Amino acid sequence: MKDLNKYEEPARLLKALAHPTRLCIVAGLMNDSCNVNKMKGCLNLPQSTVSQQLAILRAQGIVDGVRSGTEVFYRVTNEKVKEVVKVLLGDDAEIFK
């Protein structure tokens, strides 16, 4: 266990995924992009809560947003995170349908 630095990034990603709302958002964005309005409806949460959780995921490099007019469509950009979520949730990894 000489080189603990190699565990920094995986631990950071796991910490970001360790909140149920953030995990649910990432699961919902696995195969398609989505905007905040659709997410808040699917999650039954206020827009402010969804936006706060997305900001955390963006800061950790897990999701990214692409602006289209007045809307921002989010998608998962980290392939390692996709693999982890698939292992954790299996077929339940698609919720924003």
Characterization of the model:
The chain is an alpha+beta fold and 97 residues long. The chain has one domain (12-81): Orthogonal Bundle (Arc Repressor Mutant, subunit A). It is built from five helices and three strands; from the N terminus they run H-H-E-H-H-E-E-H. It has helices at 8-17, 20-28, 36-43, 47-59, 79-89; strands spanning 34-35, 63-68, 71-76. The protein has a three-stranded antiparallel beta sheet. A hairpin with a 2-residue loop joins strand 2 and strand 3. Helix 2 crosses helix 4 (47-59) and helix 3 crosses helix 4 (47-59). The protein is globular, with a radius of gyration of 14 Å. This is Transcriptional regulator, ArsR family. InterPro entries: ArsR-like_HTH (IPR011991), HTH_ArsR_DNA-bd_dom (IPR001845), Metal_resp_trans_reg (IPR051011), WH-like_DNA-bd_sf (IPR036388), WH_DNA-bd_sf (IPR036390). It comes from Desulfoscipio geothermicus DSM 3669.
Key descriptive features of the protein:
53% helix; alpha+beta; Arc Repressor Mutant, subunit A; 97 residues; 5 helices; three-stranded antiparallel β-sheet
What's the helix and strand layout?
Layout: H1 8-17, H2 20-28, E1 34-35, H3 36-43, H4 47-59, E2 63-68, E3 71-76, H5 79-89
Antiparallel strand pairs: 1-3, 2-3
Helix pairs in contact: 2-4, 3-4
How would you sum up this structure in a few lines?
The protein is of the alpha+beta class and 97 residues long. 53% of the residues lie in helices and 14% in strands.
